[in-house]
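Q: what sequence does this backbone want?
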């Protein structure tokens, strides 16, 4: 027996396994410490254009006279601005015109134009043409077939659009179940996916790009929408707790029920739901329920944010602890670098929401008022 212990046939496998288990234990210990100490959290910023976002909210958050004459005037204003934009960025003009033609509210269309105006605030030629609204003005124009939103011109964006189109039925289903607008869900998805595309170039080249699929996170955040485990648990709890400020009502209590009964099986089922590579339904459902819960929280506090996708996306990114209702919420969240240019999570969501991109798949939620039906 002693010979066996001293032989190389025993020593090599024995020490190899010993070092292997030690390495695994060290990795798990470091990972746990990283989560507990917050080393995995990304630095956040307040977007440089936060004041603009608030000004836009103040501009539209008024009691407008909503009648056919007013809406005709707003449609005419929108058309004038679309014509000017078409001289510089035809792609964006076409997206916005399509939204208008498909029945988007005129005020929403004007906000789409405002989003482009913010992006082009340093384009002197465009600003000059816009201020005069003279369509025959002879200006030096920088015409391009690209989008005014630079990050929408990267190859990864085209991949994302193809990938998310495959999930349209799932997103529509979640939107119908929760009452959360599909376009808002996708706005949050955009920030999470573009961040991963940009930081996982090898993964993008190997399988995300070629297969045209969404990236599924499976470490510190989970699923295509990057839901943290504790956040998922909070969403579940808030669904069933009538005393919670996030409570949505009895009709939503059963949406996230588990098959298992004990803690271990529930924990496993939760992660399996979110990390399912073939079905992203629960990633979208958890995201939508979080958005609805914080929306209800702010409404109860007297500060509705249902018209502010940039604030809802920011809260989705920073989580429950930062969701504190107030009159002038700030847009920001994690810093996302796209080819070395920094954006805030909230700004990315805002730009997508009002860009007109994917509008044929995920249009604005229909408003109750339609000026074409009013006299």
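A:
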């Amino acid at each position: 027996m002693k010979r066996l212990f001293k032989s190389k046939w025993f020593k090599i496998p024995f020490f190899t396994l010993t070092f292997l288990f030690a390495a695994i234990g060290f990795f798990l210990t470091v990972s746990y410490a990283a989560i507990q100490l917050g080393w995995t959290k990304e630095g956040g910023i307040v977007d440089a254009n936060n004041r603009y976002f608030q000004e836009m909210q103040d501009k539209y958050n008024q009691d407008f006279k909503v009648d056919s004459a007013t809406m005709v005037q707003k449609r005419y204003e929108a058309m004038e601005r679309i014509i000017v934009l078409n001289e510089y960025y035809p792609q964006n003009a076409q997206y916005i015109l399509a939204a208008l033609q498909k029945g988007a509210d005129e005020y929403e269309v004007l906000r789409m134009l405002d989003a482009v105006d913010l992006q082009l605030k340093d384009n002197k030629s465009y600003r000059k043409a816009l201020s005069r609204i003279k369509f025959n003005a002879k200006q030096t124009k920088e015409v391009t077939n690209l989008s005014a939103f630079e990050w929408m011109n990267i190859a990864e964006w085209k991949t994302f659009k193809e990938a998310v189109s495959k999930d349209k039925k799932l997103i529509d289903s979640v939107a119908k179940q929760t009452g959360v607008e599909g376009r808002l869900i996708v706005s949050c998805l955009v920030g999470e996916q573009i961040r991963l595309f940009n930081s996982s170039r090898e993964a993008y080249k190997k399988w995300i790009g070629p297969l045209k699929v969404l990236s599924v996170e499976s470490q510190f955040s989970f699923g295509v929408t990057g839901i943290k485990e504790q956040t998922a648990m909070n969403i579940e709890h808030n669904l069933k707790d009538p005393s919670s400020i996030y409570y949505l009502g009895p009709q939503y209590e059963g949406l996230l029920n588990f098959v298992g009964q004990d803690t271990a099986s529930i924990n496993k089922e939760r992660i399996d739901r979110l990390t399912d590579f073939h079905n992203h339904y629960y990633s979208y459902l958890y995201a939508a329920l979080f958005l609805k819960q914080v929306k209800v929280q702010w409404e109860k506090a007297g500060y509705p944010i249902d018209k502010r996708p940039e604030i809802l996306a920011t809260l989705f990114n920073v989580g429950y602890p930062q969701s504190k209702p107030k009159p002038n919420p700030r847009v920001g969240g994690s810093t996302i670098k796209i080819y070395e240019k920094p954006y805030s999570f909230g700004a990315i969501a805002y730009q997508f929401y009002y860009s007109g991109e994917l509008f044929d798949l995920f249009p604005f939620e229909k408003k109750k008022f339609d000026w074409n039906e009013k006299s």
